[in-house]
Amino acid sequence: MEWFTAPDYWLSRLVFQRALAAVYLVAFLTAALQFRALIGERGMLPVPRFTERVPFRRAPSLFQLHYSDRFFAVCAWAGCAVSAALLAGLDALLPLWGAMLLWLVPWALYLSIVNVGQTWYSFGWESLLLEVGFVAVLLGNDEVAPPIVVLFLLRWVLFRVEFGAGLIKMRGDACWRKLTCLDYHHETQPMPGPLSWFFHHLPRPLHRVEVAANHVTQLVVPFLLFAPQPVASAAAALMIATQLWLVLSGNFSWLNWITIVLALSAVRFPADPPAVPDAPRWYEVVVLAVSALLVFLSYQPVRNMLSRRQVMNRSFDPLHLVNTYGAFGSVSRIRYEVVIEGTADAVPREDSDWREYEFKGKPGDPRRWPRQFAPYHLRLDWLMWFAALSPAYAESWFATLVERLLENDPATLRLLRRSPFPPDAPPRYVRARLFRYRYTTWRELRETGACWDRTYVREYLPPTRLAGAAQRS
User: Fold this and answer.
1) Are 461 and 388 in contact (CB under 8 A)?
2) Which residues contact 163 (CB under 8 A, 6 or more apart)?
3) What is the mean pLDDT of the chain?
4) 312 secondary structure, DSSP code
């Protein structure tokens, strides 16, 4: 079928596939380095406990069949290896069917991780990576030209990401409609980056322009993805520019980067296509059949986008084939942070020697400037932001976190930037306090060198020690 392929997009496919492999690599690396403390056998939310109560049909995963920390590590590092191989172009050296199977491997491995990851893996970019990764299986390799249907499926995903995010903003917080959300967002976002302080202090009229431009990019430009070239490429380029602006303004894991990867698939790069044979019939049948299934499954996210009760970041099937997306439907006006402290004193008093635990990404010491971590995902730091919004968000894991800190658990301490206690001398007590954080002004920054100012609000968790520790003291 001559209409089936689009040879002019061969370079677009190549760039997209290599960039997607890089995102996969970051995702698997994040899982490999953090899982023991989060979902390992002694993690805050252990996988074995989850699989005991959740059946395979609701959360299909290799770890439903068997779990051990060693097996998880093997799967995560295998995902890193396959992702690196795809990044290096191994799929181009394989026959068409072999390349498709190779692309299926990281999708299946990451699906297995997400489906047992619980709240640590409840972010929209997990489902987005899986949906994009599944569609990528159909793209083929150098043996065939890129299928038109698959290229449009990728644009359809990008449309839903951007348009869904735009709708949730307009239906959510009134500040998006008043163009005032960026007066607060850079200060209250989950994990500020090194430039977030400067973005916050941009002139307010410029903030209004930013919000208005965001609405245009998310509510108007997505429709242009389905226009003829070069309009579609221009629309994708505008989305890429917007996402790069967001990369500079904060740490949003790989959300911005996977969106950029999607947009790259819509850009037609000027390059002469290589000569390739016609696509085999079995490949055409597989691509058309799976594409028809994905279009059919899109009914649920379309219905959600059109609903006045639109929800953000929900998967409609256990394989995460088609999902709905959106972020920051509401924006916090005040930033709260949970500060965790420990003491070695036998009796915990207010004037005891309380020492603060330092996290890698979330604000702590007012003088410590935020760092850039994205696309790497600091899962504990992100969940601590939710914990500050409401203790209910942390009910399932916060007590275990405190217990692991009281034990000086090595896997948990590796999630932190610094523990104030030596490995052989854990704290006797740990407590948590809630603080209000705000960015300092230009004058305060010059005078104090601190980018944050914090004010004590209330006790979050009273001084706590391990059960039975009093008898052992």
Assistant:
1) no
2) 218, 219, 222, 305
3) 95
4) S
